[in-house]
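Worked example 3 (structure in, sequence out).
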C-alpha cells in the first residue's frame, strides 16, 4: 500500500494552445491595421495628420486581403480545429446564458457556459461573416474592372457602413477583455486559474 499523498489539483488549467493564440494575435493585428487605416482614410482630421493617402490605401488593402490567412494557416493545428468546433456548437445552456444576459441576471449559475459562452460564440460567428463580406466588397472596390458600376456603388456603401459597425463591435470586445484580466491571461499565456474556469465556464471539461 502506497503511503504517498495524492498530488493536489492543479491551480491552473490549459485553455488555449500556441496555434490558437498565434491566430488570435495576428488576426487582431491585421484587423487593427484595417480599422486604423480606414479611420485615416475617412476622418478628415486624421487624413490631414497622417498624409500619404496612397500609402495608407495600400496598407489597408493588403491588411484586409491578409485577414483570412492566419486562420487558414492555423487550421493545420488540431487544437485550433477543436476550438472552432466548440465555437460552432450552440446548446441549451447557451440559450440560458443569452436569456440571463438579456435580463441582466448575474446570479451564480444563471449563465452556464462550456469552453466558450454564448456571447463569444455569437461574436466569433458575426466577425467571421463580417470579415468575408468586407473582403468581398473590398475586392469589388479594388478591382473596378471586374464588376458593373452599380455593384461597386453598392459594395462601397456596404463596406463603409459595415466597417463602422465592426469598429463599434471591436471596441466592445476590447472593453470586455480589459474588464477580465484572467481571460486576457488565458489568451496571452494559454493558462487560466482553476477558480476562474469553475466560476466563468462551469461546464468546461479541459
Amino acid at each position: 500500500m502506497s503511503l504517498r499523498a495524492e498530488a493536489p489539483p492543479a491551480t491552473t488549467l490549459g485553455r488555449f494552445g500556441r496555434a490558437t493564440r498565434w491566430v488570435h494575435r495576428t488576426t487582431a493585428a491585421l484587423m487593427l491595421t484595417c480599422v486604423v487605416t480606414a479611420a485615416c482614410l475617412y476622418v478628415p482630421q486624421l487624413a490631414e495628420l497622417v498624409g500619404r493617402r496612397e500609402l495608407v490605401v495600400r496598407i489597408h488593402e493588403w491588411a484586409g486581403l491578409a485577414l483570412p490567412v492566419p486562420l487558414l494557416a492555423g487550421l493545420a493545428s488540431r487544437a485550433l480545429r477543436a476550438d472552432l468546433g466548440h465555437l460552432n456548437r450552440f446548446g441549451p445552456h447557451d440559450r440560458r446564458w443569452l436569456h440571463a444576459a438579456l435580463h441582466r441576471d448575474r446570479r451564480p449559475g444563471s449563465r452556464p457556459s462550456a469552453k466558450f459562452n454564448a456571447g463569444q460564440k455569437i461574436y466569433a460567428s458575426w466577425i467571421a461573416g463580417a470579415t468575408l463580406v468586407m473582403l468581398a466588397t473590398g475586392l469589388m472596390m479594388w478591382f473596378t474592372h471586374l464588376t458593373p458600376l452599380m455593384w461597386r456603388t453598392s459594395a462601397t456603401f456596404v463596406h463603409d457602413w459595415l466597417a463602422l459597425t465592426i469598429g463599434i463591435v471591436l471596441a466592445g470586445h476590447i472593453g470586455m477583455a480589459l474588464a477580465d484580466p484572467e481571460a486576457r491571461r488565458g489568451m496571452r499565456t494559454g493558462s487560466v486559474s482553476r477558480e476562474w474556469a469553475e466560476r466563468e465556464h462551469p461546464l468546461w471539461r479541459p
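Notes: Strands lie at 12-14, 191-193. The two ends are 31 Å apart (CA to CA).
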